[in-house]
Amino acid sequence: MTDLDELKQAWAVQDRRLDETVRLNRQVLAAITMQGARSALRRMVWSDGAQAALWLAAALFLGRAIADDWATRGLFSLAVPVDLYVIVMLAATARMAIAAAGIDFGEPVAILQARLLALRRLRIRVTQFAVLAGIAMWAPFAVVLSRLTLGLEIDSPAWLTANVAFGLALVPISYWVSRRYADRMAASPFWQGMMRDVAGHSMRRALESAATLAAFTAD
Amino acid sequence: MTDFQDLIDAHRKIIFKVCTAYCRHADDRQDLAQEIILQLWRAYPGFDGRVKFSTWMYRIALNVAISFYRSQRRHTRHLVDDEAALLNVIDESGTPSDEMRAVWQIIEGLDELNRALVLLFLDGNSHAEIAAVLGISESNAATKLGRIRQQIRRQVQRAA
Fold first, then answer.
1. Inter-residue contact B78 to B27 (CB < 8 Å)
2. Which CATH architecture has domain B1-93?
3. Euclidean distance between CA atoms B7 and B14, whole angstroms
4. Which chain B residues are closer than 8 Å to A112 by Cβ?
5. Measured in whole angstroms, how far is the alpha carbon of residue A26 from the centre of its chain?
6. Does B90 contact A36 at a Cβ distance shorter than 8 Å?
7. What ipTM was estimated for this complex?
8. What's the whole-model pTM score?
9. Domain range B95-160, CATH class
């Protein structure tokens, strides 16, 4: 067998046999089409949409608090960066939900795969931002949250300075830990996925897939 | 729903061949088949007949399979009980012919996009149909098939 056309002949023989040997279980088919709503993509749209709604609520809550406490300089300078973080996350999750909702698997393969890869790259960048910026800003988060929800005042500049510095120091450490240990987290797919995103492993694979797709579509 | 089920039943071999081309394990094939059916069912109201049903079905099956293949993780999710398999292959115990073994070996050696191209070619689709499914030009499809042809010849010569 030396040629693709010879393989095609063998394939045609196999194809005729498949008429006799492959059966579709109509009961299972009916069950899938009736119960339906659990595809991975659909879950992603709902999850992103729910997250966007939570980020919106947080942004409004913080915005109102900032407006009310405009004169309180200590809270203002901490709440503004926290609110900016929340607004970036709101925009990113809303964009991901809209992009995922617009995915149509009936589009030609090259077009749809390019869309999916763009969504994948966006998702990885959002995870990197959420984790690394979230770690860096843990101290402002703690101060603003405890003040607005519990009424507790943390007004020690020394505590704040030390913990902001600690948060910033944790960023490169988190990156290093993710790079070094992501592959050993096979027992926990969620954490492994997040660590691979943070470390840039997932982005490298997504870029490789994008390059393969670009080479495939190039005339 | 009956119309949809009849159409899917009439084209069931597409699902079988795509699942076999992209999944080595039977469990994965069942998961992939279910995911393909689900996406077909979701997209069916939007099917406007501008392309042939088989072209539209190939697009969905291949898009889902390529995404599944890229995710490269075993799904633990099952829409239906494992015991009730969607795709039943009656004579699974039958030994595949040498020719078919050679075909599957060649398909397995290709990346996910060229795998789709060869699958469509082997299934008897014209360059125009292949281009419509994959979203590339007809000349590009022909060029790529020519390269794969040469690659197969070289493999066979090396093996001889």
1. no
2. Orthogonal Bundle (1.10)
3. 12
4. 59, 63, 135
5. 36
6. no
7. 0.82
8. 0.82
9. mainly alpha
